Amino acid sequence: MKKIEAIIRPHVLDEVQGALHDGGFPGLTVSEVRGYGRQRGHKEIYRGTEYNIEFVPKIKLELVCADSKIETAVDIILKTAKTGQVGDGKIFISDIQDAIRIRTGESGENAL
Amino acid sequence: MENKIIIDTLWVLFTAMLVFFMNLGFAMVESGFARSKNAVNILSKNFIVFAVSSLAFWAIGWGLMFGDGNGFLGLNGIFGLKGADNSPATGDFYTGVYTAISWATVPLLAKFFFQLVFAGTAATIVSGAVAERVKYISFIVFSFVLVGVMYPLTGHWIWGGGWLADIGFWDFAGSTVVHSVGGWAALAGAIILGPRIGKFRNSKIFPIPGHNMTSATLGALVLWLGWFGFNPGSTMAADPESIARICITTNSAAIAGILSSTAVAWIVLGKPDLSMTINGCLAGLVAITAPCAFVSVESSLIIGAIAGAIVVFAVIGFDKIKIDDPVGAISVHLVNGVFGTLALGLFAQDVFSPGTTGNGLFFGGGFKLLTSQLIGIGAVGAFTFAISVVVWMIIKKTIGIRVSENEEIEGLDIGEHGMEAYPDFEKVS
Fold first, then answer.
1. Where are the strands (E) in B284-392, listed by range?
2. Domain at A2-111: CATH architecture
3. Cis before B291 (ω within 30)
4. Which residue from A2, B23, B99, B100 puts its CA 20 to 30 A from B161's CA?
């Protein structure tokens, strides 16, 4: 099992989520996060003084799936979250030791 | 000074202040119905629109609307309230160039302030329909033209002794003069702007929920309060019988609108949608604005109930034909402004304001009044919509009408104003 953590633009979430759902990924967790990579934020003004907003609002999407499906998931995210501009985000993939469904106690891929 | 002049002036100024308070109502409803990334922009628009309106209406609007002239526009005392006027003198004692409004026993500046807050309301209506995508400067320019020229011209036809007044068209407090004029201008803007990004995709409608129903509710109740200035104040005289009855017809239409819009939403949409309840309340208020002085309390309940039902279907209908109106301004102000003006032709009873409207269709007056109302609705609609299209198109070709796609996605707050309404993530330093 692997976990995908993807940092994406807030406005593409609808499309990413729809495509993942249609692609056979039934579960998804998202959170509103702020951060920066190469896209170093933007300027704002408050009462005449300019200041830099370094932490840009993003969505963090977390998805755990079987090893065999990881490529499909990455493809879907690449296709739907890409605008081509700096700030499209990143995808991180890591190994998951185990998963347990709380209601039944099932574990492993059965719990996904 | 006569007591009547003192009391009437107090009444006119007090109710005008209530109408002024509606600026807050619009600001709260519109920003609540929009997304948080556009809140600063909408609040800014609602703030600046009254400044622009005040300047435009003082500079030329008042004179075009109330100056003596022909059936189509005022020609005397146009600029800066500079025409001769000896208000509060009335009747044979009046000498001046603002004859059409010389019946009110209040000083010129009281008349001006009362009419000004109405003109401001018409411009504010536009703000909601074009929200979340219109350029700030373009909205400011349009508002100036609307309040300086367009609103006063149709206003002159009806309240300035113009040709619609002559054919027996009646609009007591402005279902047509204020609300449908604002609504037609808003419709033209919403069509020329096009929908917000993401509203209609693959021929499907995607809801874009408002970010704060608490402030929308606050705003709706503020508007409701303001309407007790809007309608009863339009007597421009503290006439006890009239202002008390108009208070109740106004309130009855609002509550009937609330109940019917809630019921219709519950039945048709499955849930009693709060945003529809709010729109229903405002729909009832807009609809009763024209007939409030001429109908019974029972009739006002019926008018409000119909308005509340109409507004739900109008909101759904405009979505279906892909006209994106984030706050339902067109459904509330245009559709129900038209309906309210028609309702006057149906429900009016001569007994309430003898010698004015006569009886409407339902009370034995035949089609005479209804026909005048239809002519007025058509004329004001055709004129305002056509001129609005021209003005919006000129703005589009010159300074541009819509923010860039990128700015719309990021939000107009940062793009137009460089600030956020809720900068809730801050580094502690």
1. none
2. 2-Layer Sandwich (3.30)
3. no
4. B23
